[in-house]
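Friendly challenge for the regulars: who can give me the structure tokens for this chain first? No prize, just bragging rights.
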Amino acid sequence: MANRFIYALAACAGLLGSTACTDLNSNVYSAYNTTVFPQNEEDVNALLIGGVYAPFRSNMFEGLFCTSNRGVQIYNDMCTDLGDCRWQDVYWFDLINVNFNTNPTDGEGPSLIYRNNISCLSRMSNIIKTVKEMNSISEANKTKLLAQAYCGRGWLAYILYDMFGRIQIPTEESLSNPAANIIVPRSTDEETVKYIEENLLEAAKYLPKTIPYGDADYGRFTAGAAYTILMHLYMHEERWADAVEVGRELMKPDYGYQLVPDYKDIFTLENEGNKETIWACTEDHGINVQLWLSEVLPTSYPRKNPNMLTWSGYRMPWQFYHSYEPGDRRLLTIAGEYISNAGVLYNEANPRGELDKGAVPVKYGEDPEDTGSGSAIDYIVLRYADVLTLQAEALARNANSVTQEAVDLLNMVRQRAGIPTYKVGDFGSLESFLNAVLTERGHELYFEGWRRSDLIRHGKFIAYAKLYKKSRSSAPHLFLFPLTQKIINEGRGLVIQNEGY
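First reply, four minutes later:
Bragging rights claimed.
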């Protein structure tokens, strides 16, 4: 999807490249001279795009939402019951089998997410400080620009908190004195949650509720995105009433969110910017491209575009595939069986080396212009079905009972999937309803990165690792990923590893 924001992102992503997100004390002032830059609103936009939006990309093998083994959505689903991979690299084996006990190095693996992104919080904080001190921009415009930085800082902090627990929150002293190499210890859980919440609330106050598809600013953060992450934070913290309140906000007509009538249409080029999408990584050839179909499709899989690269990696385990109800339309986006162009049948009974690990989670449509370099179909990160199913769960947990409203919300997603809807009387207990929500979210949001946090919230992450992944290494402390040894070493005794590692 080509627009001015994408082109600006491509042009500015390298602007702050000299301030890499690998140094605990990296500082934005090393990348530009504030006496000459920024001077005006255009300069601030360049700062925001290069310093705030850059991590939130899906571009080949780069960005928090890339489709490779470096993406948060892949990490957070691959270690659960719905993910598997055919590749034999050791980091895939450890991730899939919930074996995070090995010494976290600076090689491949989830721990890189913290190492590569923690100092980005300092960079965003310095941008906020710089913009606040500018006199050349009106206060009204300044608040709108700052809201984007607050959203990026709050969202990134939430991702790190969800995966690794307590984070290192930049302090005024560390920001003002970068040359002093001040080590910032990890904050408490309470401090971390407050930090995330304050940033997201400040962002939501001034960001537009949504940005229409086709607008030059489509792809920037919105109040809808900020509130969706805030809702996830409240669910993470078991603040059910707060989650319900945010869910009600997102369901207001002002936001205009709706379910796309046909599930398979959500993830296609023809339906980019649909009303179900809350926020997506914008893609365009030669600028940002995502590699989902390359990661999943077998070489033998029949496709319209023969030019795309296919690496035959990610799979949905057969036990999870069979947990879908007969006639579920979401199965149309998952290939449990196919006939190759050579006329060979591939299925569970005849996997022929391609389906031995499970079905193919096709999910996305083809980009006819993918010549092997990637797809320009926008990569969806936040969408309305996530909000509806979270709201159903939050309502029931908050009321400590199965309510009609909660069931109705769950039924909206089931009805779209073409499967029988529920009645309140179908549930003999709150637990049975919560189990139904957990199942529905897995079926609806597969490989969108929410399964790990869902299982943890329901108290089933480790149990499922043992039951479905046959993990012999899983243990209670593995609900968090470890920090890399580089972070611990640089912390000089002030940055403590997660318990159990």
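The chain has a mean pLDDT of 92. The chain has two domains: 4-274+482-490, 383-475. Your move, everyone else.
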